[in-house]
Every structure is written in C-alpha cells, then in structure tokens.
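Quarterly update from the structural biology core.
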Amino acid sequence: MRRISKGIATLLLAVATLSETPIMAQENVSNELKYPTLEDLIPGGETYRYAENLYSVQWWGDRCIKPGVDSLMTVDPKNGKETLIATRAKVNEVLSAQAGTDSKKNYGSLQHFYNTQFPWADKPYMLIKSAKGYIVYDFEKNEIVKAYPQAAEQKGANIDFTAEGGHIAYTVGNNLYVDNHAVTNEPEGIVCGQSVHRNEFGISKGTFWSPTGSLLAFYRMDESMVTQYPLVDVTARIGTVENIRYPMAGMNSHKVSVGIYNPATQKTVYLNTGDPTDRYFTNISWAPDEKSLFLIEVNRDQNHSKLCQYNAETGELMQTLIEETHPKYVEPQTPIVFLPWDSNKFIYQSQRDGYNHLYVYDLAKLSANQPQKLDAEAIEKMWSLVQKVGSGKNVKGAAGVQLTQGEWLVQGILGFNAKKKEVIITATKESPLQSNVYKVNVNNGKMTLLDNGQGVHNAQLSASGTYLLDNWSAPDVPRIIDIASTANGKETVRLLTAKDPFEGFIMPRVEVGTLKAADGKTDLYYRLIKPADFDPAKKYPAIIYVYGGPHAQMLVNNWNYAARGWDIYMANRGYIMLTLDNRGSSNRGLEFENCTFRHLGIEEGKDQVKGAEFLQSLPYVDADRIGVHGWSFGGHMTTALMLRYPEIFKVGVAGGPVIDWKFYEVMYGERYMDTPQANPEGYKQCDLKNLAGQLKGHLLIIHDDHDRTCVPQHTLSFMKACVDARTYPDLFIYPTHDHNVLGRDRVHLHEKITRYFDDYLKKK
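Predicted structure, tokenized:
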C-alpha cells in the first residue's frame, strides 16, 4: 500500500535511494572474502552499506550546485570545472554576528550544506533550512537577506516556502499559517493545509502557491464525520488511547474543500464546489495569470473525472473542460501543466488509450466546445483522427492532440526547454523495467532519447532546459551521476562513479527472465537469486518475495535488478529467492493493472503460483520446501497464498497484511474493490478470515501496533478466525511502530523473519 505519512514517505524514499544493494556473481572467491550480514544489508544496520551518492546536488539556474559539509561548489556543465562559492565557516560567522545579543535573531549554526536550496535562478541567494527557521542568504555579499524564524518557533510542520513571493506557509496542529498569521481557526476534526484523501491521486501536500507567490490554494478537510479508530500507546504505565480518523470502505468519508488565501489582504475565498460529500478534489494547479485555479474532481465511485476551472477571485466554477469515464476506474495522478511559451495551452496526462500519455489542449478551443466528454467510444472516434495524421499533429478543429503514444507509458514531466518548444519526460519506452529520459517536440511530436538507453534514470532539468543532472544505475552499475546536454544527451560531464559497496564480499548470483502469467499469454518478469556457492546437484529450499499490488514494481533494471538486502542474505544462507511482478503491478499499462478489479489477490495469486510452478520445475529446487514472504499488500498475498494453495506454500511470513478489504480505507479500497455494498461477493471471496480453516503450513503474522495504514484489526480478527477454525498461525507485534518497521528495529525484523524460515523451511 502507499498510505504513509509524508515524513515516513520521505524517509523511505531516502532509504530506497541508498539501498540499491549489489548481487553480482564473483568467481574464484578467496578465503579472505566474507559474507555480508544483516547489519551490512538492512537500513538501520550498524554497518549498512550502500552505493556512494552526491547528496542534494541540484541546479542554480543553469549552474550545477555540489554541496558538501564544509564547502559549497558550483560545477560548470560544459567542462566540469568546480568553483568554491561558500564555506560553512563564513556562513556561520555571519549567522553568529547577526544574532549578537538578540535571541530572536539567533538562527543557530549551519551543520552542512545538504539542506540548502537555490530557487532563485537569477540571484546569488541560497535558502538555508535550519532548526531555527528559514534564512535567505546572499553568498556573494555574505549577508542575510531575510529570515523566517516563526515556523520553527511555533513548531510548524508542512512548511511551504515561495521564493517568488517571499512568503512561508506552514501548519501548527490542524491549522494553517502564512507569515505568522493564522489563516484558519478550526476545531478538532477539521484539518487545513495538509495532504488529503489519504495521499491518493498523487496528492502529497496540502498547500499550492500561485506562480508569483501572491496567492495560496490550500486543502480544508472535515473529517469530523469519519469513524475514529483506537490505537493504544503501551509506553504509558496505563495504556492511553490515540484515536485516528480512518474511513473504511463503504463508510463515511471525509469532506474536502479548497481555499484561496491572499497574504496581502489576509482574506480567504473557498471554491464553490457544492456539497463535497463523496467526491475527491485532486491535482491542483494554477493558471499562468493566476486568475483561475484548476483541479480534477473524481466521484466516489472513481469511474468519472472532471477537469474543472474555478475563478480565483470569486471561487465560482467557470467551466468543466474535460471529462473521462471508465467502467472500472479512472485515476488522475498529475495536475495539468501550462506550456511556458503559450499560456493558453496545457499538457494533460491520461491513460485513456491504455497507457499514460501526454495530451496538449488549447484552453480557448476547449472553452468554445466544452465540456469534452471522453468515454471509450468518444476516445476511439476522436483519437483515430489524430492517429491518421500522426502523434503530435493537430486535427483541424480539435481542442487537443495526443503528443505521445505507444504501448509504453510516460512516468513524469521533468520540465521544458522553452526556446526549442520541447518537453522533457521520463518514460518506459525502452523497456517496462526501465526509466529513461526523452525530449519531445511539442509542435511535431518528435521524440529523442537523451540518455544511454540503459537502466533507471532519475534526472533534474536546469532552469532553461539546456542541461540534465542524470543520476542513474543499471544492473552492473551501482550509480553514476552525469551532467548531460539536452541538445543530444551525448555531451556529458561525469560527477560521480560509485564503487561496488560490497567489493570484497561473497555475493549471490542473479538471473532474470520471463514466464507466462496464468492467462497463458502475458509475459511476467522475474528475478531469481542463487547462493554464491550454488551447486546444481543439490536441492534447495525456495522463497518467493511478493508485493503484487498496484503502483509497485519489484524488478527493474537498476543496480542488480533492485534486489533487496534480505533476499541477498537469504540466498547466501542457502535459499533460492524468486520475485515475480504479477498482473496488477505497475508500469505495464492499464489492462495489465486493472484485471484485478473487484477481486484483489485472486489473479495476482494465480500468477504467483506460476512462479512457484517455475521453481518446482527447476532440478535444484526442493518442490516440497517453498515459502513466501511479503509486507502490506504483499502481506495479504502471503497469507492468501498460504491459505489458497497449502499444497505448494509450506511456510509464510506476512507483514502488516490486509485480511479483510472491508477494514481498509475508502479511496484505495473502493477504487480497486468497489464498496462492500456494491461488491459483496468480491469482498467475501477476498476476505481471508473465511479461509482460516485451510491453513496447513507454518504462518507467521507480523504487525505494528501503531499501524495507521493497515490497522491492527486485520491481524487480530484473523487470529480470532483461526482460533475458531482450530488452525495455528504464529504472531509477533512490533510496539510503537507504524506500517513499516524502521530504524534499528528493522534489523531485528529481518532476523526474526530469517529465523522463522530457518526453523520451518530450511530444515526438513
């Protein structure tokens, strides 16, 4: 699942970036080499090893900034020449002098340059984020331009600074503040300025500054009608109850509205959306002239979306521009983006042809012919005309044109090169296992690859769109960071070539391939990891690591095919490790994902069984010793496979599992399952409590007692069902943890999982 707090999401993103662990085969290993331990392989371990990185490398206009602990350097993108622009000692000297004896001006000291940002492309300013607040610092004159200490003084969260307007927004408790002024004053149960709809629909924040920073759009969420779920703090002598608002599928959801605050007048206008009951407001964006606000409205059934335009001054609906419907679901993930050279045209992303692609719309033509309603028949009719003249070419009289097309998907927009009328994107065009960078000419649709066509690329675009900071890895490349020209992608300056962090260690072997899904026609990608001392004459136990749910992909062409540290560890302990991306997972198109609609875990399970059958066909795998492990959706899959296929899966460890989709939250659950009222048979079929009597092997359930994503009721209700059915799973609880066990305890978690498989699967 993806429902995690913003802070944890950021931490997990950092962990994911750092934990690309290697599994390269090493022949003729000497006696001096050693096997990596869990402390080496798991984030939180005392000796955790990861590929070297350049932290916070970024753009200042078209100049590359390379932060360090004691120094701040610029890198010339043409020749790689580095120039010192600031030292920590000098910055701290200025901060200390500014404070003097005035405690209100004590901004603390700079510990390193990794938290600095450079949002002013045309000014020698950097934004310093310290424990005492935000500071705008001129690194040429060595002076403080402005300071924003108030957010830290009030313990502000969700801080949103606008460099263009010079304002800072933040939240304290459930209320929103701008420049030390309280924008809202809400009672308990109403939350302002924070992420809503449980971070679905691409939502990750609750405030949205206009292009010049003169207006602030924000979310207001009334969840007073949402049922409260009790979590217990066991660290108190007498356990205390913490109630969280948790809207379960088919029950009352929260109501969201959108406000627009003007810092100059300190007035707020709310959009007149009517009664917001059972609707979701997503993908907020501003018009370039700031006179209107755009958002995508989705109905509770999540099968009908509307791109709406609102008057920013009055809050009234101006027009509905584009409507999309689908018999299963629509899932808008990105706001519209206006072309920087034409304020009347914007890019809209849609999966309407089965893959996420870019569409360029003319606002004036949409307004004249609105709304454009796109069901399956209308889409086929309209875009057949576009296809006749080719992608990127407009049809006479059409309000929009499909800019990209093909059986691959656009993953994101990095920005624009306005001078050349190009949009820079990442996409899976080379392979569904990859993410590569392209430029697309908006006038003719011509698409050009800007990287080497290998691996997984995470790039930042410079202000003018002339250069890329390309941080990439491939199966045999731990990490490389290049500066590349968007003219052709071939003129590069190398900033970093990371070494193998496990050089000198004994590492297992990896194989990748495809096998057919349970439908008999779809290719599925798998990763197989073998022990370093693999002997084809032996019979090994095997473990399938599974996730299997939407918006996740376990196998990609980055460093060693994205193998997890625990998989490496277990392979070296004598297990064959298999991971398979079943139908329902991401980056393969809409049909591949939505075939699981209304019966989550069923088709996915059939595909994982094909993986198990593949293992059983291997002469070196013991067909009677196959286990399975997964977390969250993977916990659901693990439990379901143990119950539905007990003749295949003998040992399982399920972490934070969904047991009954009726207990899961509204937005995610109803998108993929509909409501329990509309789909009672599907919910019954996927309720694992009903299968509790079918447990034959050894199953360990692990759950966190403060899990706000998949609440503990799932596991506890399953335990009750097993008691009633006279079956005997095992249970382990991690006190004080949320949906993921993080920090030092994460090593303990993987040691616990390892011991369970060693006890019941490794030994006959």
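DSSP finds 14 helices and 44 strands in the chain.
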